[in-house]
Amino acid sequence: VRAPVLGPSRQHEHSESLSQLQPLVGQSSVSGGSVSPPNRQQYGLSSREVEVMELIASGMSNQQIAATCFISEKTVKNHINRIFTKLHSTSRSEAIARWLGTAPRDPGRHP
Asked: What pLDDT digit, counting tens, does each position of 42-68 carry?
């Protein structure tokens, strides 16, 4: 199952989601174990997918990622779809939370 990659019309929504996640980043090491530590190797992302994921986490749009990586937006969307699959995520904000280790633990998914 592939998660849809959202276009520019929903970019504002993603910005709001990112701003809601930022306070959680600092809490991840202080929260007493309710948040998974980031173990990024468990997801098996390629080096390019890691690069794209880092840019997503920094708040960049698909267009900005494409320009930064010198690839097309379609290629960015392909990378994002693979990232979502590997991180068991259906949205950018969920993928970022998993990537940063701020997502609550889910026993049915990666530890």
From this structure: 899 999 999 999 999 999 999 999 999
H-helix or E-strand spanning residue 5: none
Q: Where are the domains of the chain?
A: 47-102
CATH 1.10.10.10 fits 47-102, yes or no: yes
Which amino acid type is present at position 71? I
- For the chain, how big is the Rg over CA atoms in Å? 14
What's this model's pTM, rounded to 2 decimal places? 0.63
Lowest average pLDDT, out of 21-25, 27-31, 57-61, goes to: 27-31
Strand partners, 35: 104
- The tokens for 50 are 């890691």
